[in-house]
Design a protein that fits this description.
heterodimer; A: alpha/beta; Rossmann fold; six-stranded mixed beta sheet; five-stranded parallel beta sheet; B: 354 residues; 60s Ribosomal Protein L30, Chain: A; Phosphoribosyl-aminoimidazole Synthetase, Chain A, domain 2; five-stranded mixed beta sheet; globular; disordered N terminus
């Protein structure tokens, strides 16, 4: 398959691995931001091919993982209502709330449907005027344009029975939270290619220079990631701290302007709570007041729900790169994909699930 | 907990860990870990006997000096009609294939219909005709059956159960427990076609080409393989849960390790594309016309040639081998030279966010 095969090619990968081995002259720790990248690294075994002096830590870029527990509980509460058809991306359904997940609600008779786009949820709202269609709008900057578009269109079309339960989060504030922590060990970043496709990478430049960390906007195939690592290592070895673009076949410096404009029309930046990490100032989007009629949290009066995380789960520390999944006492014992204590054990992009499925603990 | 379980098994014999799930979830039928646990802990432990215990695709028993294979399967699929087949072809071929995986020559099938009130007669007629065509194509007879109609809303249009019986030829001895270290593992063609065909119709996904289900009767392919060599140790049709689940089951029941190479696993380009879009791993997607064969290494070449000479095996490929290392675990050498465990899936594969 074009644009895929050449980025999974064994010979190119081997060449890059050798170059990385030659380039690494001292201990370095690099964080890949995006859960999709974590998944590729573990799935294709990149971590085993790298020199031992290079450590990869896994970042917070898994939308399923960072969505706060109380929002899952709110989703569960809304989805149990008989007048609601609750729609969501597939992998949110298995994320544990404080008592149950959405799949359990579905098994108990809740009307829950997997959709591939918020626009499909909007279509459902038009087809079922007697039901309230709620879409679980989570994710980073990547999914924000489509969610903004669905709300925008709902307003234009006068659709009254469509709303979103919104918990959008933003990458740069999370990076800054990690870099400014006294526990930080990250020396370089692979920035998330998909997020930068939408937002560009200009906002990363001041971060790179303020904290003196090199960043490479990186794609998602094994060869992309190896190239991203090599570019970051070379900067580290040379003492540089700029933002470079490995994923130039997709990402432009300024990003996708029309997507950004739409986001600005519908959403505004707000403080957000990140599951396992806590509140990060100005780190997410919420609906602007003029779109309040589409805010499920207000419509269904669930704003008061508050919950506590499992004390055993160290997801927050894993997602900030302080610890690895198998440093957790509960990993593979109390916490498995069948009985997850925290979201990173659930999502296909979660670091703990990737470690568990691809057997890193058993090696 | 242990004490509680022992008391229960003395009295009511309920060994299922009661705290795990209070209700049946969809994933209990998904072919992954939860299905596996349900079968092992609830059904197999309660019904246990020498015929059931190997947990093969069918039971094998002898009568009058002849060995028979006996198997059953129920078919629930939405939509009833899909590119490359329908619930009728699936119901006949599925049981024909389960018998074939025991090395048997399928002979007679039963067929039970659970029909929802309101199903268009035209649809039922279409299904019946395709069952008839599928039976003729694989040389089996539908010799007994049953019909039940349930209230509207109490079933999803049409459920079909088929059971089948077949004769195992002399000298053929196939069982998941017969895997040996050193066995060559062959897959009969491209994987994941069926699951992706169903997904694309069900979810209204449009690709440039129509992906067709691989639904097919595998008995003639198995006959050709058996004619080429009797050194076939294990046969399995990787349906629900896909190739990964089937390999894990065999690794577990034989207490051996399995090692496969990613670059050798055949996946059609359009299927790979669909998997990329949906975030699915083709190793976990269902097949309805493919065989995984574990054969003695010396016989692999002959068997592979026989498979490739058959229309249903023309893309057959060696994907790996059985090893004595890492018993019970499937490990895949990745395309870029790394390696990873191919685990049993914990539930249904769910489409990802981005």
């Amino acid at each position: 398959m074009k644009y895929i095969d050449e980025y999974r090619d064994g010979d190119s990968a081997e060449k890059l691995v050798n170059e990385i081995r030659q380039a690494v002259k001292r201990d370095w720790t690099i964080m890949e931001i995006c859960g999709g990248q974590t998944h590729t690294i573990v799935k294709s075994g990149i971590d085993e091919l790298l020199p031992s002096r290079l450590t990869l830590v896994h970042g917070p870029g898994c939308p399923v993982c960072v969505t706060p527990l109380e929002l899952i509980d709110k989703a569960v509460e809304i989805a149990m209502r008989p007048d609601v058809l609750f729609t969501s991306f597939g992998d949110m359904l298995r994320v544990p709330g404080s008592e149950k997940d959405l799949l359990t609600v579905k098994a108990a008779g809740g009307n829950i449907r997997i959709v591939y786009s918020p626009l499909d949820a909007l279509k459902l709202a038009q087809q079922h005027p007697d039901q309230n269609i709620v879409f679980f709008a989570v994710g980073f900057e990547t999914t924000a344009p489509a969610n903004a578009l669905a709300v925008w269109q709902a307003k234009q079309l006068g659709v009254k029975n469509f709303s979103i339960l919104c918990s959008h989060v933003l990458v740069p504030p999370a990076m800054e939270a990690i870099l400014s922590s006294p526990m930080n060990r990250v020396q370089g970043f692979l920035a998330a290619g998909h997020v930068c496709t939408v937002m560009g990478f200009e906002e990363y430049i001041p971060l790179a220079s303020k904290y003196h960390v090199p960043m490479t906007v990186t794609g998602f195939e094994p060869v992309d990631i190896l190239q991203g690592i090599l570019m970051t290592v070379r900067q580290l070895q040379d003492g540089q701290a700029t933002v470079q673009n490995q994923y130039a076949r997709v990402v432009r410096r300024e990003g996708n302007r029309s997507a950004q404009e739409l986001i600005k029309k519908v959403f505004m930046v707000t403080d957000r709570s990140w599951r396992g990490i806590g509140t990060i100032p100005m780190s997410g989007y919420r609906l602007r007041d003029e779109f309040g009629a589409f805010d499920a949290e207000k419509l269904f009066d669930v704003t008061a729900i508050q919950t506590q995380e499992s004390p055993l789960c160290i997801a927050g520390q894993v997602m900030q790169g302080f610890k690895k999944p198998h440093d957790c006492q509960a990993f593979g014992i109390q916490c498995t994909p069948e009985h997850p204590l925290g979201a990173p054990m659930v999502s296909s992009e979660g670091a703990c699930a990737a470690y568990y499925h691809f057997g890193k603990i058993r090696h | 907990m242990d004490e509680q379980r022992m008391n229960l098994s003395a009295g009511f014999a309920c060994p299922l860990p009661l705290s795990e799930h209070k209700n049946i979830l969809l994933a209990h039928g998904g072919g992954g870990n939860l299905s596996h646990q349900l079968i092992k802990n609830l059904f197999a432990s309660q019904f246990q006997n020498a015929f059931l215990d190997p947990l093969h695709d069918g039971a094998i028993f002898s009568a009058g000096g002849t060995r028979f294979a006996f198997s059953t399967d129920s078919y629930v699929i939405h939509p009833l009609f899909f590119p490359g087949g329908d619930i009728g072809t699936l119901a006949v071929n599925g049981t024909v294939n389960d018998l074939s995986m025991c090395g048997a020559r399928p002979l007679y099938l039963s067929s039970a219909f659970i029909i929802e009130e309101g199903l268009p007669m035209e649809d039922l007629w279409r299904v019946v005709r395709s069952m008839d065509a599928a039976a003729k194509a694989s040389g089996v007879l539908l010799v007994t059956g049953d019909t039940k109609v349930v209230d509207r809303g109490k079933g999803d249009k049409l459920f079909i159960n088929t059971s089948g019986i077949g004769i195992i030829p002399e000298g053929v001895d196939i069982s998941p427990r017969h895997a040996r270290a050193g066995d060559t593992i062959i897959v009969s063609g491209t994987i994941a076609d069926h699951g992706i065909a169903i997904m694309s119709v069900r979810e209204g996904l449009e690709f440039e080409t129509t992906i067709e289900s691989d639904c097919a009767p595998l008995n003639s392919l198995v006959e050709a393989m058996v004619a080429a060599s009797r050194d076939i140790h294990v046969l399995r049709d990787p349906t629900r849960g896909g190739v990964a689940s089937a390999l894990n089951e065999i690794a577990e029941s034989s207490s051996l390790g399995i090692s496969i190479r990613e670059e050798n696993v055949p996946v059609a380009e359009e299927v790979m594309g669909a998997c990329e879009i949906l975030g699915f791993d083709p190793l976990y997607v269902a097949n309805e016309g493919k065989i995984l064969a574990f054969v003695a290494p010396g016989a692999a070449e002959n068997i592979l040639a026989a498979m490739r000479a058959h229309p249903l095996g023309k893309n057959a490929a060696v994907i790996g081998e059985v090893v004595s290392d890492h018993p019970g675990t499937v490990i895949m050498k990745t395309r870029i030279g790394g390696s990873r465990v191919v685990d049993m899936l914990s539930g249904e594969q769910l489409p990802r966010i981005c």
